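Re: export button greyed out
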Amino acid sequence: MSNNAVPLLEIKNLKKWFPVKKKPFEREKLFVKAVNGVNLTIMPGETLGLVGESGCGKSTLSRMIMGLETKTEGEILFDGVSYSFGTEGKKQLYRQVKMVFQNPYASLNPRMRIGKAIAEPLVVNHMGSKGEIDKRVKELLDMVGIPADYANRFPHELSGGQRQRVAIARALSINPRLLICDEPVSALDVSIRSQILNLLADLNRELNLTTLFISHDLSVVEYLCDRVAVMYLGRIMEISPAKELFARPSHPYTQALFSAIPVPDPHASRARITLSGDVPTPVNSPAGCGFLSRCPYAAPECANEPVWDSVGEGHCTACRRHGEIAASA
Amino acid sequence: MEQSAPVLRIDGLRVDFRMRGRTNRAVDGVSFALNKGEILCIVGESGSGKSVTALSIMGLLNVPPAEIVSGEILYKGMDLLKCGEKEMRQIRGGQIAMIFQEPMTSLNPLYPVGKQIAEAIRLHKHVNAKEAQTLAVELLKKVGIPSPERRIHDYPHQMSGGMLQRVMIAMALSCGGQVLIADEPTTALDVTIQAQILDLIAGLKEESMSILLITHDLGVVAEMADNVIVMYMGQIMEKARVDELFDSPAHPYTEGLLKSIPRLGQNEERLHVIPGSISDDAPEKGCRFYPRCEYATEKCAVSVPPLFRLAKGRLSRCWLRENEGVAEDEQ
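Workaround output, generated via the alternate export path:
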């Protein structure tokens, strides 16, 4: 990472604990530690991938960045300035950060023509006269590859892929400084998925977008992202430039995750590390490494808090034993 | 593989859905055979008719709006489409079992899982409640659920998605069926859990169960399948052995699908794209894939290609293969 530039987004020791309803006679208050001490930076123009299984806290994290969820502890700095969650602060925030959601069937208002849906952020933020807004909508539709006369259609007249294009156009309408894509292609079919991925890659290049790309599909993340963070049980396990991570995963969880992906090649040799058991519940998760209960390399020292260790240029891992693991491989 | 008679055979299956005066053909002339100890994968995008095919085998289609227009589904020489509901009940679960994409919605949330497995056992076998319970514990142990004696008393909400899918598989195995139909069994699961379930299904194949695996994930296909059927808009586009399909796809649609998936460890500048989308209405005449096909010729626009039988028992529904094989006659 370059050290002189100011990161667009900086997250410091961010936590989100959801309280669980207390049972009678129970002393201790329980918490779901959805996000439990995350540190991240996103530089301007960068695409950061965030991967993890369901329940690892990646969506809670993105909702906090989006200002839809308040934090329990820690700090989020946007452009070097801490978030304020007042009315005015949120207004400012919504002008800078926009989100594309997983399900384009649910994220568009079924009773709003798509031209109006795309224009809405512009209207709300008083960005131009009616004529200017109409022109901008046409421009946006053209940018995402939808014919301009579709502006008068309703979402149900569009296919899933087209709807996701509309959702992207809407998110980009006010030129946000940060775009968050939460599983934008996982609801789409294979042949449509590649169309949307190409569109996102093109837009990234043309508009020099800063993107946080959340997905559980590692091949998609590798295709689109500059850097990738792997999350497990509310914490970042490993962060690295994408190519480096896929070439040399150093955290045992990342390794297991990679080996579990079915490879679309029947001749591929399979050295699968099958993890036993499920992801433990994040309710009052104990101290120490979160992956301890499923890790094939677990040792007594792992009950201590994991330490961040650099294993290469911009490649950090939260495993105490990564050196020994690499040596034994 | 051809030496023994297939366990399950589908011949010229056609299924219509009638809604608001419109008729949509969801499955159009699908024929295939499932052999003993084979994993046959059906791949296709949403709307390709793969689930409807599976539901027709199980006799689980809602009639109406669905209607099986023609075709035969032969299980051990018996046509399931001509069976009465009573016979079908014996076969469904007893001989042919099915697991679904969402294990959470396939189980009754109000009963413990052990009770639900025991219920399935007692429907098909003459055992008392206690014996059924013991069998349920054994089954849960077999599908790899830790401390099954305790877990049979769990309700579905107390289990994770992977566990529930194991319970579903246990239930499918409970009556010693020969055929398992798995409709997207791992789509709702995380990759590390998916790996566990796929291992479990691969283990069933070793016990010479015949498995019809429906999926849209080509990675899963490559890992699991012996033979693959590629479906598009209700028709079989290609059928081949898994290695042949991935090495040299014989249909432009298969080729397009294989090229459009991003692969780990390969630096692609751009992904291959199949233009258009499947939801557009089927062309009036000609090949179903013709509007999206990059090799389309004039012939493709006017006449429907038959399935051509190529070398090594491969099938391809493409005019480009006309000179390489003989057309299968279709009912």
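The first helix of chain B runs from residue 50 to 58. The button fix ships in the next patch.
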